[in-house]
Amino acid sequence: MIQTQLIIYDNASGIVKYEIDLYEDVPLELTKQISDISDPQSRNADYTKTIKVPATANNNKIFNYIFDLARFTRNDSGINFNTDFSPIYKANAMLYKNSVLQSVGYIQLTNIVKLPNNSYEYEINFIGRVKNIITDIENKYLSDIDLSEFDHTLDYDTVVASWNYNHVSGFVYPLIDYGQVTQQDIYKLNNLYPSVFVRTIVDKIFTDAGYTYQSNFFNTDMFKSLILPFSNGEFRLTEQDAENRTAIAELSTDTAITSYPIPNALTGWFSRVYPFDTILQDTSPAGYNTTDYSYDVPTGLVGQYRVTANCIFEIENTTAFTGEINILFTLVRDRGGVLTALTSQKYTTNTLSPNDTQLLDINFTDGNYYDLQNGDSVYLYVDEPYIIFGVGWRFRFSTGLTLKQGSSFLISPNPILNTIEGTNIPLTSSLSTEIKQSDLLIWLIKMFNLYIEPDKYDDRKLIIEPRNTFYDASAIVNWTNKVDYSRDINIKPLGALKNKTYLYQYEEDDDKFNKRYKNASEYTYGHRKFDIVNDFVTDEDETKIGFAPTPLADFPSLHSRITTQIATDNNDGKLASVKPRILFYKKYQFTDAPDKFWVLDTIEYGALTISTYPYAGHIDDVFTPNYDLSFGIPTEFYYNVTTYTNNNLFNLYWKTYIQQISDPDSKLVEMHVYLNELDIYNLSFRSYYLIDRQLYILQSINYDLNSSEPAKCEFLKLPNKYSFSGQSVTVNGGGGAQVDNESIGVWDATMGKSGNNYGKNTTAYEASIFLAGADNIAGSQGTIINGDSNNAVGTHVTILGGSDNNAALDNVTIIGSEGQTATINNETIINNVQHPFGKTIRLTPTQLDALNTTPVELVPEADGYLIEYVSAYAVLEYGSTAYAGHKLTIYQEQTTDEPISETNTSFTSSTESIMTNFSLIDKPNFTKDRLMIEASGDLTASGDSDILIVIQYRLIKI
Q1: Which of 73, 232, 303, 657 is least enclosed by beta carbons within 10 angstroms?
Q2: 224 DSSP 8-state letter
Q3: 734: helix, coil or strand?
Q4: SS (H, E, C) 75-98
Q5: DSSP 638
Q6: pLDDT tens, 712-764?
Q7: Coil/strand/helix, residue 520
Q8: CA atoms within 13 A on the CB side of 309
Q9: Of the candidates 952, 888, 895, which has an alpha carbon nearest to the alpha carbon of residue 928?
Q10: What pLDDT, in 10s, does the model give residues 587-635?
Q11: pTM (2 decimals)?
C-alpha cells in the first residue's frame, strides 16, 4: 500500500506541526523541472497540480475552519499558524512517499469547495523550494541589507586602503567620473564614491534570508571582483542611520538662568545656557556632553544638521520699572572658540510691571541645515534681558529668567548626506532603495545562465552554477533497465522551438555615452542578437538585465587612462543619478607611466599625485582583457582599443546552449521510467542519465505519488559538437578586426559612428598559411583553411569545407564539419564525428602469465572526457609453446568493474599468427574511468608468444 504524506513543519526549528489528511485514490501529481527549453532563461521549482484534500476534523483544525464565512482571521504576524491559519502566508511543507522525502517547499490554499452533501473540500498547491529564496525576499530591497560593519570615515587613508580590499572588506573607491570632475586629471576626495562588491551583497542576501549556497562560480576571482558602483544620485540616510545621528536632551526641573554676562564674538552680552540635563537620545557614537550640556560632534558624524530648541521661559521683571522686556535666543556653533550664530530669534514681552512674570513658549528653527565638523560644539545662548521704559531708556538685568521643565534641545541630520571629508559613510546608503534583492539575484541568474538545484540534505542550501558547469561529469546514473519499453517513446526534434532570434541586452540609460551609442544603434551598448536557422519559427526571445551598460572612455589629450564615466551631458557639478551598473574592479600600480598618474585633492593633505589606478569597467583588464560583461562586442568605442576579447556573457554562458537546443540533431525524448521513492529522493538534475548506451540530460519528471505507474520523463539528447573557446585579438586602434563573427568597433575621438570595416580574412600572423573563405583567424604556421569564420590558432591545423570551428591545439584536422572544437592534440573530426583514436599495445609472455591477476591498462583516464570504446582485436604472434585456452576481456575500471568487450574465441595452440576480434558485450560502452584488459582465467606460464592488442576509442568532452 502506498502511503503519501503532506507534512507542515516549522521552518525555524524543523519540527513537524501538522500532517494533512489526503485522499488515497485521488492523483497527487508532482512535477520536477530544471528549466523550460522553449524559454532558456526560465528556472523552475517543483510543483503539483491542484491537490484536493478532504475537510476532515484534522484538516479543519489545521485550516482553522476557514470555510466558515463568519470566521475572522487573527493572524497578522507574517508567520503562518501564529496564531491561526492565514491564506496570505506560506505554510512550509514536505511531501513523503512511503516515508521517503520527495520534495520540500510550501503550500498555498487556493480554493474551498462546498460539496452537494454539505461537506467541504480544500484545494491546495504545493510549490517547491527552488523559488523560495526569491519569494522569501520579494519584498526586501537592497537598502534593507545591513552593511553597518563596513561603515567608515571618508578620508584619504580609508579611500587608499580600499584599493586593496575585496568582498570580505565590502567596498572599494574606484576611479569613476560621476560628472563632478572638471579636470580629468584632478579628482577631489569627496567626488569619489564607494562601490560595494557583488559577492558581499549576495552573501548578505543569503544569510539574511536564512539560506546558504554551494557555488564554484561565486568563488571565482572573476565573480569576486564584480562591484555595484554608486548610482543613487545622492547618499540618502536610512531610517536607522538618521536615528544614529539624532540627539535629544531635555530639562528635568525648572532652572534659573543666572550666569553673569560675558563679552564674546557676537554682539551684545550673552549668557550660555547649561540646563539640558536629561539625555533622551544620543547619537552613535555618543556626542551629547553631559558636563556642559552641549552637543559635541564626534569623529565620523561630520555632516549637515538641523538644530532646534523647544523652550519655555519664564521672565520676571526684577527691576523697579514698568516696561517692555526683550530677549534674544541664539543657537551657536563653537568651532575652537570661534562662535557662529546658526539661528537667532528675538522675542518681546508685553509691558510688565515690577515683579510681574510672563511665559514665553519658544519653538524655533529656521529650517536650514548647517555644516558640522568633528569637535564642533552646539549649544544655546541667551541675551541678558533688558527693559525699555520711558522714552529710549534701557536697563539690563541678569536675574529673573527661568527655563521651565520639559524644555528640549534637538539635533537631527540632513537625510541627504553631504559627503565631505570626515563624513561617516553608512555603506548601506550606497545601495538602491528602488531595487529589490530578488531583482539582483534574477539579473545575475540571467547574466551568467545560472542553474539552481537544492541540496537534498539541507532544506535551505542551494547549489548554483552556470549551465556550462552545472552538470556533474562524475555522476552518471544508469536507468536502462528502468524504462517501460511497452509504452511509446516520443522523440521530438528541437528545431520546433518557438524562437528564431535571441536578443540579450542591458537597460537603456541617458548618461552621455549611452545616449551617443543609442543614437547610432538600434540596441544598447554591448548587446548580442543571435539568430538560429529554422524555417518554422519567427518569434524573438529577449533577455534584458536591469543594469545599464557602462561604456569606457579616455581623453588622449590629457592622459592615457581609460576610465568609466557615468555622467550626463548637464551635470552642473552635481552627482549623476543613473540606473544601476555592474562592473569589474582591478587595481593597477604604475611606477614609470606618468601619463597615467592623477591628482587626488584632499583637505587633510592637499593635492597628492597618485600612481595607483583603481580601475572599474565592463572588461576585467583594460589593457589585456580576458572577460567582458557585455553580451556582445560593441560596434563603437570611445577609447583607442588595441586589444579586445570575445569572452563575453553570451559567448561564455549562453551560446553553446542555444546552439545545442536549436541544432537539427538535438532531441527531446519522452519516455516512461519506473522510479521508486528512493530514486526520486536521490534524483539530481546535475547527473547524466545513461539509457541504451546514450547519455541524456534530464529535463523534467512527472509522477503520481498515489500510484505505482511509471514516471513520465523528458530528456535532452544534445549534440556535443559545440563549445566556445574565447580569444583576444590585437585591434590596432579598432581598424578592422572581427571576433566570433562580431565586428570590433572603431574608436573615434569625436565619438562618431564606427565604419566596421574588416578584411575577408582577419588575421594571418605568419607565412605557410593558406586561407580560402571569409572571416577566418589563423595564428601559426602550417594552417590550411577552406571555409568561413574558423578560428585556428594552433600549429599545423587543417580545416576543409566547414565553418565556425575552433582549433587552438596542434595537428588538428577538421573536415566537413560545423561548430566543432578540437579538445586534444592530433584530433581528427570528419562530418561532425570525432575519428577514433588507434592504440597498439604489445603484451609480453610475462604480462600474459599474470593477466588474470594483474590487468594491464589500455586507455588511461582522461579528465573531463568520457571514453567511448569502439573496437579492438588481438594478434597472437605464435612462438613455440601455446597458452591455455582463455578469453581476453576489456573492461571499465570502476568500483564494480564492467566488462565491455571480449575475444570471440579462447587462445589455444596454433601454428601461425592469428587475429582475433573482440565482440561487444551488451553493456554500456561509455566510461569516465580507464580501460583495462585481463584474462578470464590463468593462461599458465607455459606460453611464450607476444600478443598485440589494437584498440580504437573516442574521447567525448563532458
Answers
A1: 73
A2: H
A3: coil
A4: CCCCCCCCCCCCCCCCEEEEEEEC
A5: B
A6: 999 988 877 666 666 666 554 433 344 444 444 444 433 333 332 223 343 43
A7: helix
A8: 29
A9: 895
A10: 998 877 777 888 999 988 999 999 999 999 999 998 889 999 999 988 8
A11: 0.70
